[in-house]
Amino acid sequence: LRFDEKVRVVVFKSEVKGVFCAGADLKERAKMDDAEVGHFVKRLRNLMDEIAALPVPTIAAIDGYALGGGLELALACDLRVAASSAKMGLIETTRGLLPGAGGTQRLPRCVGIGLAKELIFTGRQIDGQQAFSMGLVNHTVPQNNEGDAAYQRALTLAKEILPQAPFAVKMGKLAINRGMEVDIASGMAIEGMCYAQNIPTRDRQEGMAAFREKRPPQFIGK
Question: Mind telling me which Pfam families this protein's record contains (predicted)?
Answer without folding.
Answer: ECH_1 (PF00378)
